[in-house]
Amino acid sequence: MAVVGWSDLPSELLTDVAAGITELADISRFRSVCSSWRSAAGDAAAAPPPQPPWLLLPSRLFFSPREDRIYPDLLLPRPAAADRRRRRPRLYGSPHGWTLAVDPTDLAASLVHPFTGATRTLPTLPAFFKETDDLAWDWSPHGVMVSCGEGILFCFFSDSSDLLSWAPIPALAGCNASSINYAAANFFVFEEDVCRTTVVDALTLHVAAVLPAPAVDLPAEARLAVAGDDLFLLVKSKWMYLFGDDVDFSKAFRLNHRSAHPAWQDLTGIGYDRALFVDSLHGFAVPTAGFANLEGNTIYSVSTSEVSNRRHTTVKYSVSAFSLDSRSSKKLASRLDGREMAMRGETPSWIIPSIIEGAAVASLV
Questions:
Q1: How would you class 260 by CB atoms within 10 Å of its CB: exposed for 0-12, middle for 13-18, buried for 19 or more?
Q2: Which of 219, 253, 279, 355 could join 233 via S-S bond, C-beta 3.0 to 4.6 A?
Q3: In a 10 Å sphere around its CB, with 0-12 CB exposed, 13-18 middle and 19+ buried, how is residue 209 labelled?
Q4: What's the rounded Cα separation, in Å, for the pair 168 and 177?
Q5: What is the pLDDT of residues 224-242, one digit of tens each?
Q6: Calpha distance 284→350 (Å, rounded)
Q7: Cα 221 from chain centre
Q8: How high is the pLDDT of residue 328?
Q9: Half-sphere exposure in the Cβ direction for 266 (13 Å, CA)
Q10: Per-residue pLDDT for 49 more than 90?
Q11: Is residue 207 over pLDDT 90?
């Protein structure tokens, strides 16, 4: 009797199995077995089930709050044997699928897709990016925008690596960017120190609008979230740290950036059909329909606490849910609780799991 290998299983059987997979990480692993399995999972990959956000952690771990499960590495590229003495690239997530990888040794940069294993080479970043761990970035179908504080660079995509280069955006030369969000053909460049948002056309890189801060004391922490035409500004006063973990953003504002006279208004709610996810890199909204443990009218964020001992410093991460109804925050019990990880240069960031390598992610609203 001939031995049947995994790649020789009937295509009808493989297609039936793939159709029953509901978790994106499992679809991704199924497709990575061999070419016949990848082909059998074509329908599942073309229309994957909607996914709530995951956390990309600095230790190359991925945390799924819905499953309360930690995934190591997924399909992130592994270094070749000759490169194993190099430092591990730092990873900076985006809700649009791709992740920015930066080698701290020589600032070599690339886009990597953790759910497909695809990579796109980018030019090496300028030397001044070594001077700080702070980095803001996002990407559009046209290219990548990145900043380490003062000034902003852009690299237009090209099929030829010889044509790839970082170029400064003159109109944003004095911009102290803390986060960059791409949505609906615009980049939204946020300056946390002055709570100012600059809207930049993603194709021409011309400044479309400058949105000054609302009437608020300069915060200890502020986050910008983008959802369609709406911008959400979330402010935490330095005094909030005196009240413990059961409170969070002291002020929240909303603005329609396409209105004739855009102005920040106090935020009373975002609706029970969606939730906001924010971190130091990005902020975005997702629909809550179909996700039993995802609460509407709620802001999800991630916090980091350092744990010091005589030998080294580690960190713990936790997810908080801030209700816009009660204006109070609660930490979500999860497998992250009590888990200490090595401290690295990156910060945790929310990503939308996807095996679609285009710019549009269906889970975003």
A1: exposed
A2: 253
A3: middle
A4: 13
A5: 999 999 999 998 875 554 4
A6: 9
A7: 18
A8: 86
A9: 5
A10: no
A11: yes
**Amino acid letter, residue 268:** T
In whole angstroms, what is the distance from residue 343 CA to residue 336 CA?
Answer: 15
Q: How many CB atoms lie within 10 A of CB 180?
A: 26
Residue type, 259: S
Single pTM value for the model: 0.86
Q: What does the alpha-carbon distance between residue 276 and residue 227 come to, in Å, rounded to a whole number?
A: 9
pLDDT tens by residue, 327-342: 888 888 999 888 888 7
Tokens read off for 324 = 């816009």
The b/e string for 58-93 (b: 16+ C-beta within 10 A; e otherwise) is: bbbbbbbbeeeebbeebbbeeeeeeeeeeeebbbbb
**Hey, what amino acid is at 219?**
P
Question: For 79, how many CA atoms within 13 A lie in the half-sphere containing its CB?
Answer: 11
Q: Are 81 and 364 in contact (CB under 8 A)?
A: no
Nearest CA among 331, 305, 328, 300 for reference residue 316: 305
Cβ(66)–Cβ(293) below 8 Å: yes
- Tokens found for residue 312: 């080294």
Nearest alpha-carbon partner for 200 in 192, 213, 210? 210
Q: How far is CA 77 from CA 2, 113, 143, 270, in A?
A: 35, 9, 21, 38
CA 231 – CA 248 distance, rounded (Å): 19
**Cβ atoms 15, 40 nearer than 8 A:** yes
User: With the C-alpha atoms ordered 93, 96, 99, 100, is the resulting torsion angle positive or negative?
Assistant: negative
Can you tell me the distance from the alpha carbon of 300 to that of 287, in angstroms, rounded to the nearest whole number? 13
Q: Which amino acid is at 131?
A: E
Q: Could you give the residue ranges of the DSSP H alpha helices within the chain?
A: 11-19, 24-31, 35-40, 42-46
Residues recorded for the chain: 365
